[in-house]
Amino acid sequence: MARLNGMGELRELSVRLAGEMDATRTRVSVCMTGCRAQGADELRDALIASISDEGLDGQIEVRETGCQGFCAKAPVASIEPQGIFYQELSPKHASAIVTQTLRDGEAIGRLLYRDPESRQRVVEAGEVPFYKGQTKRVLRNCGVIDPTNISHYIARDGYAALARALFDMSPEEIVKEVTDSGLRGRGGAGFPTGMKWGFVRSAPGDTKYVICNGDEGDPGAFMDRAVLEGDPHAIFEGMAIAAYAMGAGKGYIYVRAEYPIAVRHLKTAIEQARELGLVGPNVLGSGFDFEIEIREGAGAFVCGEETALMASIEGQRGVPRPRPPFPAQSGLWGKPTNINNTETFANVPLIILRGPESYSEVGSERGKGTKIFSLAGKIENTGLVEVPIGITLREVIYDIGGGIPRGRAFKAVQMGGPSGGCVPDQHLDLPLDYEALESIGAIMGSGGIVVMDEDTCMVDTARFFLAFTQVESCGKCVPCRIGTKRMLEILTRITEGKGRVGDIDLLVELAEGTKDGSLCGLGQTAPNPVLTTLAFFRDEYEDHIVNGRCSGGVCEELIEFYIDPEKCQACLICMRQCPVDAIEGDKDVIHVIDRELCTKCGVCVLACPPRFDAVRVISGEPVPEVLAMGDRALVRAGRTSR
């Protein structure tokens, strides 16, 4: 395609491309990002081969898309215009999909989603509960377009917002619209985006920079990754609009090297955008010059902090620096710099194209628009969801997430990554907005939600997340370097059954000191898991210290495994799965665990069928004598003998 000059040429191209992508032409959209781990590559190849075998080449398109969200059912695919959604696919399904669905138009029942309550098969994705409760704005193109084909993006009004900004608006008007929209930073702090842009715009200097923070390092979080992989042009467009509004001529996308698909898609997208004159010198013939460069991070969690990120881009060690001066006054190479995260930039084209009033119709009074969350942990429907800000946690966990597996009770969620806080069941109806979460010691963060059930030990949970932040601390400031280390030592001691009277008070003192004295956001928020678990689950800490008991059955030094003879069906499943052969028994002979050999890995608990539920975990009490392997007791099925 030729280089574009002006809004008119872009509009003509958009109309032409939309017409060429005939909505009546059948296409199979296969998730080719996260679903690759479950065999999406093989599925795609099998579909292409089956289409060729049926002589349907040229009539059916197999489209490679970004994340479609429903990770629990990967690999997934959608078929248009029929509106059929298939899940848990494999290459062996390709032939049937082609002959029955693509050729004959019939939905294949066994490949459709089954509603767990009604047991009815659901044909369309929009009727699947996981999708039904979502409001897709930022993810509007993810799972729909091929992110490596700029034509798909332009056909869906791509870069129309940039054209409007360049030819119909002044920089001041752009900043005002973003401010009026109520958009707040989606990276965690929730700072008003328009205000941030205004600071950079008014800062003196001819050289300014725009940075997209794609350094997503939270365990269990993949929101930015999905947008980077599935809709890179939306990020470019948002960055270009921001750069024009603030007077910047250069932008950087800082993305983790651990995201190879995202890096590859970004590089492809930049080449395509530059070819059409949407990035580079004289964008769309407007006289505005804007270059974008990708910088790959080496995986340091602290580089998600904006001053450490800038140091990394400059080629220095990624450590935070004191503020002020703030980046808006002195940022990258000492020049005024604006930093927003991936999701924030992807919101900008919507605001400029539809107006701030339309944008702010969704969300809460204190937080406009939508927020992307990643659902992970003990939840039925793991995946990526986009919902209005202000939705309750209960709606996300149960209506969209499908609740807790195996009938377990909900206990808490870790909100906002390793530096977030644990939200217990009494706050399930809390609205998910910045201030509400902050009021109970949690944070929105970048959007990670890790769900925990009744079998979770909250002391061990705090230890796990603090271990992450302690390792990732850059060590520059004493409160973070020493405070996180000492807290981790105490938590580890408690989980090993060596807790001391006074440990809880010492933890609180260390946590508050670390929070108040640390240089950057990592240290200031690192104590959150400790403080929130102490606030809501103090009894578990006391139980560990005073009674040597872990109610969640997690802390290895405080638990024992045994098999209940009244429930064991002698099915051999746990015996075969045990990695250290610590289970003795036989067919029709009740199994017994040798405590001398048992490593407490928990494989037997997971292996035992839920309908039997025979493997038990006890803490703070002796194992029943009849089940002690030292007595070499074997209990035959149907009768007990010694």
Structure description:
A 5-stranded mixed sheet has the order 12-11-15-13-14. A 4-stranded mixed sheet has the order 2-1-3-4, covered by helices on one side. Strands 9-8-7-10 form a 4-stranded parallel sheet, with helices on both faces. Helix 18 (478-495) runs antiparallel to helix 19 (503-517). A hairpin with a 6-residue loop joins strand 5 (113-114) and strand 6. Helices cover 37% and strands 15% of the residues. Mean pLDDT is 92; it is low at 627-642. It has 642 residues and is α/β, with parallel strands linked by helices.
Task: Characterize this entry briefly.
The protein contains 23 helices and 19 strands. It is an alpha/beta fold and 642 residues long.
Main features:
642 residues; alpha/beta; 5-stranded mixed sheet; 23 helices; 19 strands
